[in-house]
């Protein structure tokens, strides 16, 4: 009987293959119709058909994300996005949106020939209000340009620490800035202009669509395409900065100093520390958010003997801090990945995880040349409480002092993808297990540090997830974004206990 079933299946295979081929042809034909209609409606300046400009197609930070779409829609005003959404929805084709293209997760900001790419880089206005209190920023702008345009006015905005990162994706993940002890970026959001699933152009702020305003501060791209952010600016500060390099063998002492500092950091919210280890050394950046001289809060680090001093301890402009911080992230054209986890402060656990990570990262580096980092981001309970202001957010972060660990991974060959990524995957698994044993684990995963196989929204907690689903159902009752958006941290994929 089983033999007969096998023969029957073999006879059916050509027919099944024909069905699959027919379906693929139907999808490509349908997306072709959508592209043609979009170009007819919006014009050739806005919609590009194949053959596409190579530089535009490849405008992704990670080579693992580069794909060629069926066509590219490049809106320069809100109405273009509105019309694009209506056309894509009506033809039931897949699409992806790209702000800066800095996500290393394949398919988050790119799509192949079965879909349409909406390139938001043309939505790049930077407009400061007359009272110099609020700046309106197009979602396709990059943080370095935003800062540069505000400096002549003596103000700045809390944003991305890497100048080339796009505005849009960073904010939707609830991004914390390089001066994270000072304030959360989500606290400074004033308003959004967003195209929802029905193609309507809406606003989301504390008074108008407040549920959407709440959801957009960490809920990702589940609610529409945000085309403009209004952000409260801050006076352009001068800051004290000092930076050191330590040997990898000094990790236990450096981690002890980091933990000792963070234990007192809540008493001085002007202080923050950048901790990054790579294959060669540990870099420590001490930052004080006003002019100072050797702030006492950093005393645990002054007791250490560094390999070298990376620059003079002095007061600099805020833009200098951004220039220094931008050097942390590789801008090299390569394959990239990131990954994140959070934990209560536990020096012994951090040391164990560091040893675990370093042994594996060095072994993989020897085989593949891959570079990996070990980054500790301090988050104080004061910062978490600030996030609850200004309409709150869905992140569900425990109001305790904690660290967010992340890694940035760079490598060359697609053949090494699994081996290279195994280091960060095993590291987060080890840390989670160790945290459970030591009662120092925290569930939260920061979306902007999450890798493709992680599920950050589920870590916000059941109440936040349920509310996010309610908001999504209100503004997208037909599930357009869940079904037709290519990839991303989508609500319908969130794990249910």
Automatic annotation (TrEMBL):
InterPro entries recorded for this chain?
FAD-bd_PCMH, FAD-bd_PCMH-like_sf, FAD-bd_PCMH_sub1, FAD-bd_PCMH_sub2, FAD-linked_Oxidoreductase, Oxid_FAD_bind_N
| UniProt superkingdom | Eukaryota
* GO MF assignments: FAD binding; oxidoreductase activity
rRNA-binding among the record's keywords? no
The FAD-binding PCMH-type domain is annotated at 65-236
Q: Which residues form the signal peptide?
A: 1-17
Q: Which keywords accompany this UniProt record?
A: FAD, Flavoprotein, Oxidoreductase, Signal
Question: Carries keyword Oxidoreductase?
Answer: yes
Q: Which Pfam families match?
A: FAD_binding_4
Family label:
Belongs to the oxygen-dependent FAD-linked oxidoreductase family.
The protein here is known as FAD-binding PCMH-type domain-containing protein
Which organism encodes this protein?
Hypocrella siamensis
Phylogenetic placement of the source organism: Eukaryota, Fungi, Dikarya, Ascomycota, Pezizomycotina
């Amino acid at each position: 009987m089983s033999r007969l079933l096998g023969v029957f299946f073999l006879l059916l295979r050509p027919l099944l293959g024909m069905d699959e081929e027919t379906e693929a042809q139907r999808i490509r034909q349908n997306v072709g119709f959508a592209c043609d209609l979009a170009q007819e409606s919006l014009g050739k300046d806005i919609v590009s058909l194949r053959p596409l400009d190579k530089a535009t197609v490849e405008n992704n930070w990670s080579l693992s994300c580069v794909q060629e779409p069926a066509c590219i829609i490049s809106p320069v005003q809100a109405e273009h996005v509105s019309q694009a959404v209506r056309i894509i929805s009506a033809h039931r084709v897949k699409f992806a949106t790209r702000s800066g293209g800095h996500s290393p997760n394949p398919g988050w900001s790119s799509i192949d020939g079965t879909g349409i790419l909406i390139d938001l880089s043309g939505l790049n206005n930077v407009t400061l209000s007359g009272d110099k209190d609020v700046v309106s920023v197009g979602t396709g702008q990059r943080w370095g340009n935003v800062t540069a345009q505000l400096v002549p006015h003596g103000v700045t905005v809390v944003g991305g620490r890497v100048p080339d990162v796009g505005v849009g994706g960073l904010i939707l993940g609830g991004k914390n800035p390089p001066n994270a002890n000072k304030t959360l970026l989500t606290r400074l959001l004033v308003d959004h202009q967003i195209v929802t699933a029905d193609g309507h152009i809406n606003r989301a702020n504390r008074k108008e669509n407040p549920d959407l305003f709440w959801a957009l501060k960490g809920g990702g791209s589940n609610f529409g395409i945000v085309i403009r952010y209004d952000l409260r600016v801050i006076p352009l500060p001068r800051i004290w900065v000092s930076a050191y390099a330590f040997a990898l063998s000094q990790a236990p002492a450096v981690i002890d100093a980091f933990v000792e500092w963070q234990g007192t950091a809540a008493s001085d919210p002007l202080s923050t520390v950048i901790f990054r280890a790579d294959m060669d050394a540990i870099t420590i950046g001490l930052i004080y958010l006003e002019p100072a001289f050797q702030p006492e809060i950093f005393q645990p680090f002054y007791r250490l003997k560094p390999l070298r001093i990376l620059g003079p301890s002095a007061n600099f402009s805020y833009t200098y801090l951004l220039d220094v911080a931008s050097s942390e992230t590789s801008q090299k054209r390569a394959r990239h990945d990131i990954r994140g986890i959070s934990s209560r402060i536990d020096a012994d656990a951090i040391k164990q995880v560091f040893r675990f990570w370093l042994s594996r990262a060095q072994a993989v580096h020897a085989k593949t040349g891959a570079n990996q980092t070990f980054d500790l981001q301090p988050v104080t309970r004061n910062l978490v409480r600030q996030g609850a202001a200004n309409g709150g957010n869905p992140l569900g972060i425990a109001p305790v002092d904690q660290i967010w660990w992340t890694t940035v991974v760079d490598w060359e060959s697609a053949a090494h993808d699994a081996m290279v990524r195994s280091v960060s995957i095993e590291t987060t698994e080890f840390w989670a297990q160790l945290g459970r044993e030591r009662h120092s684990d925290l569930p939260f995963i920061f979306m902007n540090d999450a890798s493709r196989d992680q599920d950050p929204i589920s870590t916000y907690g059941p109440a936040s997830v349920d509310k996010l689903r309610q908001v999504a159902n209100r503004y997208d009752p037909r599930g357009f974004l869940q079904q037709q958006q290519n990839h991303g941290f989508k609500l319908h994929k969130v794990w249910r206990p």
